[in-house]
TrEMBL record:
Keywords: Cytoplasm, Exonuclease, Hydrolase, Metal-binding, mRNA processing, Nuclease, Nucleus. The gene is PAN2. InterPro entries: PAN2, PAN2-PAN3_catalytic_subunit, PAN2_N, PAN2_UCH_dom, Papain-like_cys_pep_sf, Ribonucl_H, RNaseH-like_sf, RNaseH_sf. It comes from Petrolisthes manimaculis. GO terms for biological process: mRNA processing; nuclear-transcribed mRNA poly(A) tail shortening; positive regulation of cytoplasmic mRNA processing body assembly. This is PAN2-PAN3 deadenylation complex catalytic subunit PAN2.
Amino acid sequence: MDFSAIQFDDILGYNESSAIIEDSSAYAEMYGGDGGEAFSTTGDFSHNASDGDYMTGGEFRESHSVLVDGGDRFGVSAVTVDPKEELVWMGNSGGHVTSYLSTDFMKYTSFQVHATEEIRDLCAVDSGILALTPTSLNLRTRQGIHNFTYQSEELENMQCMLQMGGRFSHCLLMGGHQNTLVEYDLTRGEMTNSHQVGENGCVILRYHPRFVCHGDRTGKIVLHDPRTMRSEHSFQAHTGSLSDFDVLGNYIATCGFSNRMGQLLSDQFVMVFDLRMMKLSLPLRALVPPLLLRFVPGLSSCLAVVSLMGQWQLMDAGQPDNAIMSMSYQVSCVPESVITTFDVASSSQAVVFGDSLGSLHLFTSGNKPTFNNFSQETVMIDLQDHTQTLPLTDETTSLASVPLYYPTSSLISDWPEQYMKVRYRPTPPFDPAIIQSMKIVGSIGYAPNVHNKKRNQVPYKFSRTKGQKSNSTDNASGKNEEGYTVHVPWRYRKIEIKYGKHGMDDFDYDQYNRTSFSGLDMSLPNSYCNPMLQMFYYIEPLRALMMSHLCEKEFCLVCELGFLFHMLDISMGQGVPCHASNFLRAFRTIPEASAMSLTLSDQDNRAKINFASKIQSWNRFVLQQLHSETLEDKIEHSMTENYDDRMIHLSKQNTSDVSPDIDQPKNKEGSTVQSQDKIENSPLASIFGAHVVSINKCTKCSFEIHKNTTSLLVNLNFPEVTEGSCPFSSVVERSMSLEQTRQAWCDSCTRYQPIEQSRRYKTLPNILAMNCGLDSAQDFKFWKHQFVVLLTDIRDKKKEDEKKSDDNNKSSPSTPSKRYPDSSTPQPSPARPCRYGQACTRHDCRFWHAGRDSSEESQPVHVLNLLDQTMEHSWVPLGMKATLNQDGTVSIVDLTKTQLEECYSDGKDVVYELVGAVSHIADPRFPDKNNLVTCFKVGPSYHVRAKVSSVSHWYLFDDISIQPIPAEEAVWFPCGWKVPCVLYWKQRHQAKPVCPIEPINPITVDVFGEDKSLAQRGKKRITFTPLTADEMPGEGDLVAMDAEFVNLHQEEAEIRSDGTRTTIKPSHKSVARITCIRGQGPLEGTPFLDDYISTQEQVVDYLTQFSGIKPGDLDANFSQKHLTTLKSTYVKLRYLVDKGVKFVGHGLKNDFRVINMAVPAAQLIDTVHLFHMSHNRMVSLKFLAWHFLKLKIQSVTHDSIEDARTALALYQKYCDLKASDELVMALQGLYQAGKKAQWKVPGEEEEDQ
């Protein structure tokens, strides 16, 4: 009987994401008793057979752990318990064998078997101990005397050996990584026979009264007749390889690895085969990932199962429903070591383990444990004392090994008695704060352990020489270059998530985002621009403009932004972030972006990238790019025209009092004035643009050139003088009306002359975009100085107010403010302990720390560190008032929060309120985790779309994390770690009812009109029939859809020592083929869309087996398919989505995610979920087609047309079953048939062969 075709993973519903959770609550949930009681983590368990101790002697405990001979260099490779005497034998990878006497682990014998080869296996026989190396067999007496060494050409790479029982006890079988099994006669001392076992060899041998069992490298176990060594039965225990197996009575138990997705992963289950019926019994799920196992002698079905990291437990192979006999024990090995071998004593009272770092661990049970119930007496040898001699040339032997003379009388060198008293280290005194906070229960006091130390341990403080700290120490303590303490809140830190086996599907995003808005995924290259994309989306006029645009250009940023904004609209309330993959793909194709180093790769070191400067360059470049693209292709929709006119008209109203002197300037000296108009009116300019006149005047001849231009943003220019206070509005005013002198060409003088350059405004923008700069040390010094001046003034004013209050009340002298303490005054240490204990890295922490010097806690607090304690005050205001003067200059003043609520823009003044800020987050402790975040004030219209109250509120956007914040936090800039990069200000008008600016959908039925192929060579194969005008799908119509993909970047994952697999970075896929099929009508089942998507990026894996895509299919020079651009097919799908079409398919959620399109859940009909029962596995389309439709699909490769038709037929079958009330029975029959067939279509293996 051959069981090689059995696939146990599918029987069990096991998947690669299964993991063992090692805490008591998980155990109670998985293996609770009848009453729901939880098991004890100490291992106490009452076996249900007798409700008492399952073994005489009670629980196991680790009684000894010794470092074996040579353990400092070699690990333990083999261990066995002697069945004749009270001995444990150990062999290591250095060829050395050592024995230990009784459970007291006294060393008995120690000898070297081989100089270079490791000990592969040990076997205790009557005449001594057999040691097997890769090329030899050695026999020594138990006292270490050499008996014989056998070597032969047949012994190539031996792995295991077995002494047969009964009348064949003189026979020894040896196997290894070779195709023969060597039979050796211990009586005659020679090889008597060799047996063929196949090319997979023999790695494990076990004896049974009826069989000789051997396991090979492929996970197969073969049962041989002990008389003829003929193969009788075989079991395919594991699909990958075999780790260990054992046989006792009627059971064979195995553990090993399975081959999943081309990788060997550890099986969580112990496979148990019944030798009476020669078939698999119910597998046993272990609490620990099994690596080694042994049956416990004396108990017919008790198993000891051991994991790689040293956890082990006892299981009952005869009772699969209640197999756990004890919770897991832990071998006390160091974390760097792993368990390599173990054995169980015949008395069942001792278990011995060997690890990779040369240690031997003994677990015993009972008061007086023994290895055997009836042991022979061990011969003890009387050792003669040998005088140790050392040659004079010996430089390696330790002098400590030379025995010393122990005199019985006093020596001259003895110290006097008064200097020889025993002194114990005094116990350090308890801190009074601990005594005060201690709770007394009876005669015992309890206090919180704030030391972060183990129980019953008090650290002693040693005085050390204080020297200069290194930079690494400063970074580890969270200090910047100036020595200020830096503590970055969690909500601002860079998020790094590890996906499971199913990628995004099994990740809980709610822990980062509990709002109705959607975040942006950060796993894609160039996702550093996510904060700016979020800011663009929440600017309502810009959102409407982008979503109303559509052009024929393949890579258009305006179109891609419109598509992305549509995804963010649809994804509201779904709790899943969106991908900006299509936008970033178009962005990478722009040559200017690469020339400006705005595109990054995965290999770039984040610690060396200046994200603050890069995001400002990105903002400047993208605004200009959007301006150019909307200028080239103006939108023809009436709403957009009216919107643009309304915005321009509003800008003119705000500047109606501008003097006409700017349009026609007059020079008092009568010099020539030349005007050059370069105004470019675009829809984007009506939002961000300001009409600016640039004036260049020659200082020699007074020749002037006036250029009318459109300015889209303002770059802040900070003064060079850092002394004194300077309002933020003065810096903005100086930057907008910048005047400077430079060397330039003068057309009048026909030479280079000093030219005075200035700017004058005719209109002010509706949205003022501002790059903060701060890319030089001088600018940053000015920035910090303004915060220092501001906080110092506030602290001094607070102290004066408190002093006046104290004088009026005639009270005691004033104390410094708690919120704004004097930086020169040491701060007292409060009695309340810090929650972080000694792990706290803030030197200015206000709480008490055990063991910290009072001088350390009394350091002066720098005034900038006060920013970490309050958000009430900031140098950057929440609002500004701008006035456009007659001469074209701009006057700006700061507005407080209260003033801002009462001011609105009118015909003379323009009131700007801050609506967005992009900041750079730099934690000196983690320089490679620099981050960019956005604080934005989301308007009422977005809250209305999210079906919440119509209010405006500030939010913090950190990729997938979205959290509400107060308005003060938007202008909260602690100089140590948060620096502003981009600020957006919006004109504040009189409050009106919420009336969202809705875009006009530019995607019409015309997108199906032109259908051109990019393929240039060969005859094109048309596999679809285009839609006619009367066939256009409408709301509720069915369309079957399927897509195929290729890999642009492979998945990055790690496999831990316990076999669990964690995805660090998901694979980056690109859509390669999209197929849509009619779901009704006379041409039902006929494709109307079957496009191959051209890609200009490098494909690392075409996934031909799963996609059917071959190299050349996506290349316009070689393809014979109907090849189109992604945008051409994307707009067709968008038209169907906008029309309310219902898509039918298998795994549609993943398909649309890679296509980068959001579809409402009501428009998706996924056969994965239609034919699924809760708490069961998902069923493949291939198996569903075979079971319900009697079709065999995907036999060689995948075809999207075939898959889409099959999904449509399955949906029709689902509707029929549901109408006849047979759906539940059909699903039950589906899972029964799947388990019976191992979820494989019968006959497919024969077809593959």
